[in-house]
Design a protein that fits this description.
There is one protein chain. The protein has helices at about 1-5, 10-20, 40-50, 55-65, 65-70, 90-100, 105-115, 120-145, 165-180, 200-220, 225-235, 260-265, 275-280, 290-295, 300, 320, 370-380, 390-405, 420-425, 435-450, 455-465, 495-500, 505, 510-515; strands at about 75, 250, 270, 365. The two termini are about 30 Å apart. The chain is about 45% helix and about 0% strand. The protein is globular. It contains 24 helices and four strands. The strands form two sheets. A two-stranded antiparallel sheet has the order 1-3. A two-stranded antiparallel ribbon has the order 2-4. The protein is mainly α. Helix 6 (about 90-100) runs antiparallel to helix 8 and helix 9 packs antiparallel against helix 10.
């Protein structure tokens, strides 16, 4: 891993210095030594860069990959090809590979060592274990088998671990972290504002770790049912997120801004997808109440020369098609809805200069209470102990998502909740007690897909696990092994060029990914072919 091997003492010191100059007195001459670096100096980088909370890393990571693959958005720029499954190594490297390996395992290993001489950092270490576990799962879900036990800690040509082994170890990490945070240890230090998630509130970290354990357990439900049930029921016996106040979200610490989606959206290079439009309009007998909150009106509607108020763009359009008037960005809905422009985004596009100050406070959501409700609903239809009633969890999840979306709207006078009950009680959104397992699962995953928007990493993983919601094959594929005319979709990202060159024996081993090797049409371990 080229970026890891070049992570010198000087660069390490520079990163810490630039992010925390006010804490310079906490540093010694050798910041690489474990007992000389406070966890408070390391955690913000793990949270900030580990989850693409900067504009470049966010754009080349989720925005140009998983948000397109999950079909939240569609590309409208002629100079981007990732919506057509084109592969750009720089984007993948900066957006997914480096975000994990540059910071998370390295910083975690430093604090693991220094706890031996600084036991007061023990609780702080558990937070880092949870963060690193999240990053490890995100990375293996995108790439499949990856370096895990030896990755990111300075080992040349690290071995690749199977995705199964990674998941199993992450369950252990989360369990041990929770048990430690629940123990009664005296003299423990805590994070303050350095914790970009919860400001050092360990009770919220416990809820997040348990909720993640349930998320990851269900990921294995079709491939490793016994392990999935055991881990899921263990998580359900613990305290999970129980309101929107427990939502796990992060803001950019360097620029002091919120979700990068709203920073890059005014660049005018993507719009909501046709899939998003269809699901928001057709899942119930009324439009989804979140539609005007999240998305802007078309310019044609604003100018009075179109009867289409909200419109999406098909995924994977060719360069020539993107040049047609009907697919140009200005004729489709952007991501600036009522929470960004209470006066209905009248220019149809959005401008950072004209943004209400509140929008920069909107943070990047990594896990929310609504998702936990849908996880419990799925666990219930699987018969897992402690899951509760599927219908109740399902409907509470929808309402939690409504509430979360509306909380971001500064001008409460523009909120219309009159169709909430109609939405939940009609059409495909309505829960059907007599429905079979697959129908109930499709309802749950469709609503979860909506509620976790715009978390494309998780949404794409869930589509590959379940085959839901109903996505549309891309119009064109630049990957020759994927044929959208046959209803086929991209399945993972391939390993980055540096890894294939400098760790060739391991990265290019035919034994990777259940003997499939590497490639965009290779399924990860938990992908059991429930879609093409």
């Amino acid at each position: 891993m080229k970026s890891i091997k070049k992570f010198s003492l000087l660069s390490f010191f520079f990163v810490i210095f630039m992010s925390c100059t006010s804490n310079f007195e906490d540093l010694n001459e050798n910041p690489q030594t474990a007992n000389e670096v406070s966890p408070s100096l390391l955690l913000p980088k793990m949270q900030d860069y580990g989850f693409n909370n900067n504009s470049w890393e966010y754009q080349v990571g989720p925005n140009l990959h998983t948000n397109l693959y999950a079909q939240y958005f569609a590309n409208t720029a002629t100079y981007f090809n990732s919506d057509r499954y084109g592969y750009n190594n720089t984007w993948v490297n900066d957006g997914y590979w480096k975000s994990y390996y540059t910071y998370l395992p390295k910083y975690l290993s430093i604090v693991r060592e220094q706890v031996n001489t600084h036991p007061e950092y023990t609780y702080m270490l558990q937070v880092m274990r949870i963060i690193s576990a999240m990053g490890a799962i995100r990375t293996t879900d995108v790439f499949g088998d990856i370096p895990y036990t030896e990755g990111g800690i300075g080992i040349n040509q690290p071995k690749y671990d199977t995705q199964k082994d990674i998941y199993y170890d992450v369950f252990n990490e989360l369990t041990e972290a929770v048990n430690t945070l629940k123990s009664d240890m005296s003299g423990q230090k805590t994070y303050g504002d350095e914790d970009l998630f919860f400001k050092g509130d360990y009770s919220k970290w416990i809820k997040l770790a348990n909720s993640l354990r349930l998320r990851y357990a269900l990921r294995l439900s079709f491939v490793d049912a016994d392990k999935a049930k055991a881990e899921g029921e263990a998580a359900l016996a613990e305290e999970l997120m129980n309101s929107n106040a427990d939502n796990a979200a992060v803001r950019n610490s360097t620029l002091d801004e919120g979700h990068c989606l709203f920073i890059i959206s005014y660049w005018n290079e993507f719009r909501i997808s046709k899939t998003m439009e269809n699901i928001m309009k057709k899942t119930s007998t009324v439009n989804d109440p979140r539609l005007p909150i999240w998305f802007g009106q078309t310019i044609g509607w604003v100018n009075g020369n179109s009867d289409v108020q909200f419109q999406g763009t098909p995924n994977g359009l060719s360069t020539s098609d993107l040049g047609l008037d009907e697919y140009k960005a200005v004729n489709n809905s952007c991501v600036w809805g009522l929470y960004a422009y209470p006066k209905w985004n009248k220019n149809g596009k959005g401008s950072k200069a004209g943004t209400p100050s509140g929008i920069v406070e909107k943070r990047m959501m990594l896990m929310n209470y609504a998702e936990v409700c849908f996880l419990k609903a799925e666990a219930a239809i699987r018969g897992w102990a402690g899951a509760g009633d599927a219908k109740d969890n399902y409907e509470i999840g929808i309402q939690a998502s409504f509430d979360e979306a509306r909380a971001d709207v500064a001008d409460k006078s523009v909120i219309d909740a009159s169709n909430d009950d109609v939405y939940v009680s009609t059409g495909f959104a309505q829960w059907d007690l007599a429905a079979d397992f697959e129908t109930k699962l499709k309802k749950i995953i469709t609503q979860k897909w909506i509620a976790i928007y715009p978390n494309g990493d998780e949404a794409w993983a869930e589509f590959r696990r379940t085959g839901y919601p109903d996505l549309m094959p891309v119009a064109q594929s630049e990957e020759p092994t994927i044929n959208p005319a046959n209803g086929e979709f991209i399945k993972k990202l391939r390993y980055v060029d540096d890894e294939r060159r400098e760790n060739e024996t391991n990265a290019l081993s035919s034994s990777n990914n259940q003997g499939q090797g590497d490639g965009l049409n290779v399924r990860v371990w938990w992908d059991t072919k429930r879609y093409k």
